[in-house]
Every structure is written in C-alpha cells, then in structure tokens.
Amino acid sequence: MKLPLKYIALLVILSLAGVFAYQAYWLTSLYRTQRSEMEKDIREALRTSDYNEMIVRVKNLQNDSLAQAEVTVSTGYDDERAFTKTHTIRSVKYGDSTRISIWEHSVKDTVPAPQAALQADIASILFENKNSADELASNFQQGLHAAMDVLSDPDFAVFDSLLETELRRIGIRAPYRLMYLHRGSTVDSSYTFTDTLNVKTTGGYLPSPKAITYDYSYDRHGNWLYRLTLEPIESIVLTQMAGILTASALILVILGLAFGFLIRTLLRQKTLEEMKSDFTNNITHELKTPIAVAYAANDALLNFGTGTDPAKRERYLRICQEQLWRLSGLVEQILGMSMERRKTFRLHVEAFPPEEVIAPLIEQHKLKADKPVGITLRIEPEGLAVCADRTHFGNIVSNLIDNAIKYSPSEARVEIRCRTENGWFILSVRDQGIGIPHDKQRHVFDKFYRVPTGNLHDVKGYGLGLYYVKTMTEKHGGTVEVKSEPGRGSEFTIKLRMKHEK
C-alpha cells in the first residue's frame, strides 16, 4: 500500500525528532556522569597530593640522621629502658624553630603519643568499618598523619605543587585558590575555621560568587583542612566532551540534511508524477488528433469519390501532410528528450551561416500558423557563422519560434537576432506575447513543466520544448536564459561559443 506523501513526511519528522531527543538525553546523562567523575577526581587529587606530601616528608626525614633515629625508635619499645630523642624541625605554620622532646616510658605505664594515636585509629577502623576498604585507607592515612605531624609539620608548598600536578593530570588547568585552615579551639564545636595558616592562588585568581570549594581534612577530628576553590567545572567537562559533542552534532546535521533531502526528493517525485500524468494525457490527445484527422481525410479520398476532384484531392492531401508533419514534430521532441541520456550521443558540429537554418524555419512556421505571424531576422555582422550541430540547432530555433507564436495574442510579432559578443554567438528570440510570471521563470526549462494558465486550454504543449532547448544548448557548451514581463512578452537568449570545444 502506497502511503500519502504527508504521512511519509510526518513519519520522517517524528523519526528525526526521536533521534534528536534520544541524542539530547544521552548527552545530558553523559555530561552528568562526567561531571560527577570530575568532582570525584578532584577530591581524589587532594587525598593523593596529601599522601604524596607525607612521602616527601618521610624521604626528607630519612636523609636526616637524627630524624632517621627517631623514626627507627617508633617501630618498637623497650620496657626495660627509657631514653630521650630530640629533633629540630622548621614549622610551616609559624615559620620559627621548635625543639620537640619525646620521652618514652615503659609500655606498661605510658605509650608514646604518636603510637597511641595510630593504634587507636587502626583499632577504631577495624571495629567500625570492617568491609569498607576506602574508609579503612582514609582512616589509616589520617592516623599516619597524626604520627608524622609530630615529627614535622605538613609542607604547604610541596602539597600545592603536588596538587597542581594532579589537577593537570585530570585535565584541570584553570587557576585556583588553595587554603590551609585550622579550626582553632577544640572547645568550639562550630565548623568555622578561625586560623588561616597559608593561602596560595594561581594567576592572580579571585574567586567569583559561583566558585565551588572542595574541602579535605586529614585528621579524624576535622581540625586541619585543605580548602581548594575553583570556578564551576562545567566548562572543563564540556571541553573534555568536545569530541563527542562535535561528532554528535555532525551526525545530527547529516541526519537532518539526509531527511531534508529525502523529503525534497519525495516532493519532486510527486511533482514529476503529476507532470508525467499531464504529459501522458496531453500526448495521448495530441497523437490521436492528427491520426484521426489524417485517417478521415484519407477515407474521404478512398471511399467518397473526392479523389476525382483535383481541388478537393489537393486539399485533403495537404491536410494529411500537415498532420503527418505535426506527428513528425511530436516524435522529434520525444526522441530529443530521450537522446540526451544516451551514452553514445554525439554532436556533429560544423560552422555554417545561421540564416541557412533559420530562414526555412521562418517560412514553415508562417505556413502552418493559425494566426497572422510576422517574423523578422537580423544578423550582425553579415557573414556571421555559428559552430553547432545543424539538426539540433534547427530544432532549438524551431522550438523557440513555436513558443513565441503559441503564446502570442491574435497576431504574433517575433524578432530573431544573431550577433557576437566576447567570443560568443548569441541568438535571441523575442515576442510580444502574454509573458511569464517571475516565480515561474526558473521552472520553464524543467521536463514536462508548463506554466499554469488557469482554465485556458487553447495552448497545446507537452512541457518538452524548452527542456529540449536547454538540454541541447548545454550539450553544445552554451547557456540559455529567459527575460519576461507578464503582458509584455518574453525574450529567450542562447549563447554558444564561436569555436566549439570537443
């Protein structure tokens, strides 16, 4: 079953809208997932930078003999001996030198503060989060911090450098602000950080009201905190999705163009089918009419004794000749329409004076016209020659003259002019007929197209003449154009090269 064009167009539009909607939904979901992953990566960058900063401190302590001894002592305790180790460190918080003394008593009495904190943290983790590996690692890192921070304070500059590297690794190169905060009093239960220990900004960055903060606390009580401030990461996520967005947009554009081309093709096919139907109706009528007239004239000559009357015989024979001429012209147009598709089609180009072809055509059209016809021919300069296929050039001129006569009022006035201009042979055929509306002029050379004339059917045609003119002119390497004003007539201009290029 053949669906109407409007239903096909509706299905195509709905399909395209569905593809667009699904693509938009998929891209939105992907964006949200990418944004969530980016936020996780930022928090992981803070944790990784903190861990790597502790690794740097451990290496620095190992390079210090006193610190190395101190680290060695922390691995075990002797309940029979007590000793004191001292180590001088540079405080990042205050910028002064502090001497810290660690006194180790018997394990039975007192456990050193670093080991006690670490043991308490690990026991708490194992008890509360037996199945959480991430929580276990986080709490272990916090306990390790408690032990390390007694030996040396966190190096804010190192942490900032490591964080910048981590942010670049995940694709964030935007400026940021990093703050090292302390809550201050342990009695205060609020989460307002009263001490800002250090601040670092990149590129003179000043956070906007829309800036987002990411906090990372490295101790279990939340007293010590790194705060990273960034502008919203939407642009970063969209930049990372640029390839996918571009590909998706390209696919949608291609689909849109393809569907548009499909709709256009369907519309053109519908128009072509209508034009073919009109052509079939017209051509059937045009074939039957001359055949019927010729048959009637021939029947009169054979069966009604009109053959003995010389005047009537000549009249009926002339009628038969005119109808056969009409049939011949019709067949010639149909053959010309199909000839341009043949791969073996070749033009037999020669140079000849245009009047050799045009003058006989003028006489023929004057004789067969059913109205008074006046045709003038002007050739400038004298001796002008045209390079073309003689037969097809004659058919081109014949079609233009025929149109000029058919679409003229009761008396046809046609002017044919041949001239040269910048190496081109120019043929123009002008009439004073009904003219062609501006919006129809670009279609007059289409196959089967006829300018609508309302309910007027007195002008016979098949929509092939001007199509043949355009096709054969282009086969010669030339161009054809029309200028027309409704009610003032039309002018068709053919341009052919003076020397034909094979």
Walk me through the structure.
With 502 residues, the protein is α+β, with helices and mostly antiparallel strands. It has 2 domains: 5-75 and 82-240, no CATH class; 340-497, Histidine kinase-like ATPase, C-terminal domain (Heat Shock Protein 90). Helix content is 51%, strand content 18%. The chain has 11 helices and 13 strands. The chain has helices at 5-62, 65-73, 113-128, 133-151, 156-169, 234-240, 242-303, 310-339, 355-368, 390-406, 465-475; strands at 84-90, 97-103, 177-182, 195-201, 212-217, 224-230, 349-352, 373-379, 386-389, 412-421, 424-431, 479-485, 489-497. The strands form 4 sheets. The protein has a 5-stranded mixed β-sheet with strand order 8-10-11-13-12, with helices on one face. A hairpin with a 6-residue loop joins β5 and β6 (224-230). α1 runs antiparallel to α5, α1 (5-62) runs antiparallel to α7 (242-303) and α3 (113-128) runs antiparallel to α4. It is rod-shaped and about 140 Å long. The two termini are 49 Å apart.
How are the secondary structure elements laid out?
Layout (H helix, E strand, L loop, with lengths): L4 H58 L2 H9 L10 E7 L6 E7 L9 H16 L4 H19 L4 H14 L7 E6 L12 E7 L10 E6 L6 E7 L3 H7 L1 H62 L6 H30 L9 E4 L2 H14 L4 E7 L6 E4 H17 L5 E10 L2 E8 L33 H11 L3 E7 L3 E9 L5
Parallel strand pairs: 8-10
Antiparallel strand pairs: 1-2, 3-4, 3-6, 5-6, 7-9, 10-11, 11-13, 12-13
